[in-house]
Specification:
Blueprint lengths: L2 H24 L10 H20 L1 H6 L4 H22 L2 H17 L10 H20 L3 H21 L6 H16 L1 H4 L10 H4 L5 H6 L7 E10 L5 E2 L2 E2 H9 L50 E6 L3 H14 L4 E9 L10 E5 L2 E5 L6 H10 L1 H4 L13 E2 L10 E2 L1 H4 L7 E6 L19 E4 L14 H4 L2 H7 L1 H9 L8 H24 L5 H4 L5 H20 L11 E3 L11 H13 L12
Parallel strand pairs: 1-4, 1-5, 5-10, 10-11
Antiparallel strand pairs: 2-3, 6-7, 8-9, 11-12
Helix pairs in contact: 1-2, 2-4, 4-5, 4-6, 5-6, 6-7, 7-8, 12-18, 18-19, 18-22, 20-23, 22-23
Length: 601
Amino acid sequence: MAEEDVVPKTFRALVESADRKFARVRDLPSYGRAQGQHYFQKVFKAYMRLWKYQQEHRPELVKAGLNRWEIGEIAGRIGQLYFGQYMRTSEARFLVEAYIFYEAILKRRYFEGCGVKDLRVRFKELRFYARFLLVSLILNRTEIVKVVVEKLRALIYDCKANFRETNFKEWKLVEQEILRFINIDTTFTIPSSRPFRYCAMLNCHPNSVPYVARFHAKKVLKFRDAILMSYHRNEVKFAELTLDVYRMLQCLEWEPSGSFYQKHPAEPKENGVAVDYSGASGLIDMNLAADMTDPALPPNPRKAILYRPSLTHLIAVMATICEELPPESIMLVYLSASGKPGQINTSHVETSGGSRRTRKSMLTSHSSLEQNCSATESHINGVKGPSDYYNDYLWLGPKGNGGSSNLYPGDIIPFTRRPLFLIIDSDSSHAFKVLHGAERGEKAALLLSPLRPTFKGPSSADITQNGSQFTLFLTAPLLAFCQMVGFSLTDSDTEVLNSAESILSTAFSKWEVILCKSPSLDLVWAQVLSDPFLRRLIVRFIFCRAVLSAIWPPEGSDQYLPLCLPQLPNSLSPKSDVVQSCVSQLADHLKVSNYFHFGDS
């Protein structure tokens, strides 16, 4: 073999070997603690060897016909591997590494300049833009998202002009999806708004820190794993990430506070010992000055993201995670879905001259609402029969798929043998009240959405347009409040926004102290109060319940109010002074007090 043939043939062999290994890990499940870890290390090692080989022999490979897009494809595969590992572990460093490689591909223009007649390469470039957009969205890199969207749009236009016989309708839908997403996501519409992620500077309230630090329940659980699922027809999404899951995903992660990307140094080892490939230096030489990772932060809880799963797949994932849950740990399950196929319940509040009147949604008949209320009436009276667990349900399936797509409260009961923090966001959420007292081992913490959302006007009420109101209250309470009352926030309202956030922070701090000091706090809540993510969800639920209680009169308001089981202390009820004063102060600050009634103040 001629010497000049050795390098390109070795390179092609390395490419084929890496691609074979990549195919084995690409479709592995993204849930479970040990799924694919061995294969991930092997395929990563193969791509590291390939990347270094092309770096060391770049002149010979270029002379032999190596194209720049081929280098970009290798870097893109490494980015895919990092992102896949992030989805399996929720470790921020893997998401950052994926971003580093994708950004390098963009800046070095690996795909640009190739022949416009090569349709295969054009499809590779389209897929690269779509993957880079997903990573940038999760990292909240708003400016780079806008840049990549424009490049994607230009490439689609160019492809349609040069490949007229090829249908690019699917890619046009991708463009429409991302535009719809960023036009609704407040990260893009209000850049000065607070991050969804937990920020120690913003969410750790100094006045309550000593009480939380000293708080010690009889039993303390660690939040280790979460399942996030949203299933609505025509909901806002990009790729397989819906708007509601996107918000909840970020709500359960740490916001880095460092000013530069930092990585954990590790010496590579062989002989069966896992190798840490977290560092990018030497692979793509970049100095990424961005607030992306902070090694001082605790690890994020693992999250299994399920996009439109079948009922059996959802149950299988829950079973796997429940089985692998470490001792003294709790699993969070977030389920957002309609209770009836293709049905969305809405309501809104109208004001006229200071008077209030309510108008019920015409999308759901009064008779179906009565069925929802009567289905759980037996549970309220303390009597539960077997049928109570299989009346109402969440709908997880295409239209006309029958009962095989119904998730009933009874389907959740087997998983209550382990600690469970369950959030149900649905127009049939109250049906899941029957789980309280029916657990098989551990009492579950239940946060249940209202059956109907509440809005000043009908324009914001559509889940398919704005995402769920209850989920927004749990992930961005001030934005949810403003959206509900029709208070239009823009990025020029920074002072108003900051003052409103200060009102909420002061109130949340007081409520945390009350929770820590309350002798009537149920153990279900006490055992998770030390966890910052779950504590923040509890406090935000209290706010959501108080706001909605202040809008609706007591009679007939059950369908418009969220529920929690077991009950939280009465000292934090919607009618308590310390809670009601927060809603009143916020409403006065935003000049929307006419929508609320504080008769018991």
